[in-house]
Structures are given as structure tokens and as C-alpha cells.
Design brief:
This protein is of the alpha/beta class. 36% of the residues lie in helices and 21% in strands.
């Protein structure tokens, strides 16, 4: 069975449409959607509806920090732009969608994987996996949950970490389109990168295709993907809203950086 691992959609309809189309062309059988479905983008209602539909068909979906913030509403001390995004997003979503965001689980254990948004050791604390130290903590937590693989988002750039049986950690910055073997004698932490808000200078949407293997006789593999999409259309959609103007310009700058 192959999984599409998609995270940090951030209400970007154009990016998600491109990724879903690409994944289906690759024959993906299951979807794991790793949170931050809302925030930053112009189409939160559409994205939430797509994730709900996939979940109804058997997809995994977990809560991200932006989902939790929108579900809870603005809080004292929130930055002005962040408050504006939360208020506007809540206006686009009905009570059922807000309740769904609030009730999303922080972690799901299925197949060989432990699926979380931020990390496996404190998924509701929203710590970032900045390097090997945090990666080792997340990998150990996944091992304690009897999962060989931890899949998380939150970091908007693709990354792969591993932990050997003797506790030695390593990391790997993947190349798009190249299949990487995942030997079952190691623990693995997969960070697919952001679908709707990549932050590595490449505007193409990120996701990954994962085959777990059986953990005994068959090793797994992972292939990180970059999918071009109409970034200018996504930026134009933002310009048609009352959201802070820098959100559209940030996407437009990524388009220029990728040219």
C-alpha cells in the first residue's frame, strides 16, 4: 500500500488541487493529512471540505496549530496579522467546520506510522523539529508507541531523519522524485514539506509518497515530490480578500524565486 503524505495545506486551493491530482496519477491508495489545513490562504472552506471528504474515505487527518487557533478564536497577545487571519478564516467556516477542526486528533497510529503535525513527543506543544535533537525525541516517542515511522509536518521544508538500533541519529535532505529506501531496522522521521506554503525558495507544492513495507521481510521507501501549480492564481485569490496584503506578496515572491 502506498500513502500520500500531505501537510501544511494552509487554505491553498490551487496547491492542493495539483497535489491531489498528482498523487492519484501515481496510484496512491491512502492519504495522510497532517494538519494546518487553514491559515494564510484564500480558500479555507474549500480545503476543509476536501480534507473532510478524504477523511470520510479513510484518510488520516490530524490537527495542526493553525487549525487549533482558528477553532479557538483570537487570543490576547496574538500578533495583529495573525489575529486578522484567524478572524477572517472563522468567518469563512460554519459551526460544523469549526467543531471538526477543534475535534481533530493530535496523533493517529496506523500501519507502521505515527502521524502527528509537530512532533511525536508533545504534539500539542507545537515544538518544531529544528534538527537532530528534536528529531531523536520524536523518533524515541514513536518507538515507544511501537511505530517504526513518525510522519509530521510543521516544518515547511522536506527532511528525513533516522535512528539506528544503537541510538545513532542521521539526517538527509531529500531530492524530489528520487526513491529512498527505508530499511526496517531503523526508525524514520519523515517531514514531507508544505503543500501550500513551501519555504525553501522553490514555489512548487511539497508532498511525499510512502510505502511502509511489512517491517519484516520487505523494507519501505519514501519519495518526496514537488508539484508545480498556479502560484499567481493563489496570490490573486488572496488579493481578492481582506486578508493582510503581505500574504499574497509572500506567495508571489516565492514564484519569482523559483523562476
Amino acid at each position: 500500500m502506498t500513502w500520500a503524505l500531505i501537510t501544511d495545506l494552509h487554505a491553498n486551493r490551487q496547491a492542493l488541487e495539483a497535489v491531489l491530482s498528482h498523487a492519484r496519477e501515481q496510484g496512491v491508495e491512502r492519504f495522510a493529512l497532517l494538519g494546518d489545513f487553514v491559515g494564510y490562504g484564500a480558500d479555507p472552506a474549500w480545503v476543509v471540505e476536501q480534507v473532510q471528504a478524504l477523511q470520510a474515505q479513510g484518510a488520516v487527518a490530524v490537527q495542526g496549530n493553525h487549525d487549533a487557533a482558528v477553532a479557538a478564536g483570537e487570543r490576547p497577545g496574538m500578533h495583529a496579522d495573525a489575529r486578522a487571519v484567524v478572524e477572517w478564516t472563522r468567518q469563512q467556516l460554519g459551526p460544523q467546520s469549526l467543531r471538526w477542526l477543534a475535534e481533530l486528533p493530535l496523533r493517529v497510529r496506523e500501519d507502521a506510522g505515527l502521524f502527528t503535525h509537530a512532533n511525536a513527543y508533545d504534539p500539542g506543544g507545537w515544538d518544531y523539529v529544528m534538527g537532530r535533537s528534536e528529531a531523536m525525541r520524536s523518533l524515541q516517542a514513536a518507538r515507544n508507541a511501537q511505530a517504526r515511522v513518525n510522519v509530521c509536518g510543521h516544518m515547511h521544508e522536506p527532511m528525513l531523519y533516522h535512528l539506528s538500533g544503537v541510538g545513532k541519529a542521521g539526517d538527509f535532505r531529500p531530492q524530489a522524485g528520487v526513491r529512498v529506501p527505508l530499511p526496517c531496522h531503523r526508525q524514520w522521521l519523515i517531514i514531507p514539506g508544505s503543500c501550500g506554503q513551501p519555504r525553501d525558495g522553490n514555489p512548487a507544492a511539497c508532498y511525499a509518497i510512502w510505502h511502509p513495507g511489512d517491517g519484516v521481510t520487505e523494507d519501505g521507501w519514501i519519495r518526496f515530490e514537488r508539484v508545480p501549480y498556479d502560484v499567481e492564481a493563489a496570490a490573486d485569490a488572496l488579493r481578492q480578500t481582506t486578508l493582510p496584503r503581505p500574504l499574497a506578496e509572500r506567495l508571489a515572491r516565492r514564484l519569482l524565486a523559483g523562476e
